[in-house]
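Is this the right way to post structure tokens for a design question? Let me know if I should format differently. Anyway, here goes:
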């Protein structure tokens, strides 16, 4: 009888012990991914400063045009494979078929290689046509030819990244990303030393060479880590579910087609902006400079803080897939509501910081006043942009990727029409208004679909407390530091001091007003 009770206790405690271990693993992975994401954003922002110094605002604008077209080629190469790999691996593990993971990954890697090779071939063959038709800038073609060599490696790395996301091997995926960023910056500094008098087109080509070399190195590291990690699933290839191929096609093909449409529309929108500014009265050089300042300086700053939060959603989203596979709608609702509340608190604080300190921050980082004006003008965008990105990711985790992509396509098509008609009449102010409207449109539809898919619970206190606490925190911080003789000036130390102090007061006020809103405990797993 006693032995039976002991055995029974063991059986009863096993699920609880498993969930405790899982929650600990999620917390550790979240902390690690947050640190790595923050490091990558710091490195990326430093890289933008280097590009600004080496290329100038006009060269930065030209490089942004190169990246706009390259993004379309990357979309063709990747073809939704990262999400498909993460989803299928999660489904195999959630259904209790770990031996099928290797078979799933073999199919995903094969698809990635084929798509990457096709994209590389098309870009190499038609680089001049793409440059002329999409950008009207012949200087873009040589950079596109160089970047094409990295497309197969990007596609394969994307599939492996999806695997690491599904199995919560954050450290291994992060190692390859850090190596890629660091090696790209190091090679750029070697190929473009400070003070070198290099033509803009040649300078962009050298940056692209550094990027391709970094992509190859990152893939090699990712492949080695994946081969080492997959050993836990046995020596043979394993047998996934019989319909694995059909499920892969069902995930990858709709996502790829909708991604092609969305990215093509977004690329057209980006390349039309400089042309629209010229029609408004800008010179070609000024139009490229304005475009480069916005997309090469402003947006890297606006998206920089997201590294502190996206790690939470990246780690928790695979649990949405598992909960859906098990039919646990209540658990999925808890996770969604938790992520939305936490994202709102974070986004409101970041938006308030950019509104209050955007000008000084831009002068400290880029020595560019126009970038500061853009940061302040787009500070409300941060709230909507972060929330929309998280909502979009959760929709994909719940299997609503097709609907999510339809929203994105409608958003991109509408933005393209607005860019074509509004920018020639209103210039950069019109473009900023288009960006704000586009994000609000996308977020509204995404949230509507998310609330219909799972029960979402957000109270009025969760909505009204953060803005009030953020405003009070910034006012108190500025007043206290001013009294201490540490007034706000455009320097790195002053900006960091004001931002950190404001954030601490914001968190303290929010904690006292609404403790549940900022609870750091994870939702039920």
């Amino acid at each position: 009888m006693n032995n039976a009770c002991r055995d029974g206790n063991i059986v009863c405690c096993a699920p609880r012990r498993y969930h405790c271990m899982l929650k600990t693993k999620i917390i550790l992975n979240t902390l690690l991914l947050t640190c790595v994401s923050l490091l990558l954003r710091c490195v990326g922002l430093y890289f933008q400063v280097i590009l600004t110094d080496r290329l100038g605002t006009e060269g930065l604008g030209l490089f942004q045009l190169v990246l706009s077209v390259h993004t379309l080629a990357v979309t063709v190469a990747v073809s939704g494979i990262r999400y498909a790999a993460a989803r299928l691996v999660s489904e195999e593990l959630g259904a209790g078929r770990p031996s099928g993971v290797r078979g799933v990954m073999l199919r995903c890697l094969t698809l990635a290689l084929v798509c990457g090779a096709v994209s590389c071939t098309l870009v190499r063959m038609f680089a001049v046509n793409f440059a002329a038709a999409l950008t009207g800038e012949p200087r873009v073609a040589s950079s596109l030819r160089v970047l094409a060599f990295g497309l197969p490696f990007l596609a394969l790395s994307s599939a492996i990244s999806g695997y690491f996301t599904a199995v919560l091997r954050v450290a291994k995926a992060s190692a390859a990303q850090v190596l890629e960023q660091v090696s790209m910056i190091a090679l750029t500094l070697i190929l473009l030393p400070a003070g070198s008098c290099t033509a803009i087109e040649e300078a962009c080509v050298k940056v692209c060479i550094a990027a391709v070399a970094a992509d190859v190195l990152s893939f090699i590291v990712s492949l080695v880590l994946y081969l080492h990690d997959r050993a836990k699933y046995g020596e043979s290839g394993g047998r996934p579910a019989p319909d694995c191929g059909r499920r892969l096609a069902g995930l990858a093909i709709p996502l790829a087609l909708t991604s092609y449409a969305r990215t093509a529309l977004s690329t057209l929108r980006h390349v039309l902006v400089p042309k629209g500014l010229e029609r408004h009265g800008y010179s070609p050089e000024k139009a490229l400079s304005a475009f480069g300042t916005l997309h090469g300086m402003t947006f890297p700053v606006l998206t920089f803080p997201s590294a502190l939060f996206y790690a939470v959603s990246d780690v928790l989203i695979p649990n949405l897939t598992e909960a859906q596979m098990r039919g646990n709608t209540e658990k999925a609702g808890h996770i969604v509501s938790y992520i939305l509340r936490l994202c709102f608190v974070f986004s409101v604080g970041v938006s308030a910081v950019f509104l209050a300190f955007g000008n000084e921050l831009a002068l400290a980082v880029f020595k560019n006043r126009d970038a500061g004006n853009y940061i302040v003008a787009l500070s409300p965008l941060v709230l909507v942009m972060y929330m929309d990105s998280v909502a979009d990711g959760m929709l994909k985790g719940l299997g609503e990727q097709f609907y999510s992509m339809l929203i994105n396509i409608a958003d991109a098509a509408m933005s393209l029409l607005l860019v074509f008609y509004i920018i020639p009449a209103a210039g950069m102010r019109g473009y900023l208004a288009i960006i704000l409207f586009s994000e609000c449109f996308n977020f509204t539809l995404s949230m509507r679909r998310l609330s219909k898919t799972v029960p979402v619970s957000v109270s009025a206190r969760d909505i009204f407390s953060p803005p009030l606490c953020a405003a009070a925190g910034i006012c108190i911080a500025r007043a206290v530091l001013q009294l201490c003789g540490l007034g706000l000036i455009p320097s790195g130390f002053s900006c960091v001091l004001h931002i950190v102090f404001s954030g601490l007061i914001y968190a303290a006020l929010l904690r006292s007003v609404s403790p549940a809103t900022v609870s750091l405990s994870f939702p039920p797993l």
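Format looks fine. Someone answered above. Worth noting: The two ends are 33 Å apart (CA to CA). Residues 1-15, 518-525 have pLDDT under 50 and may be disordered.
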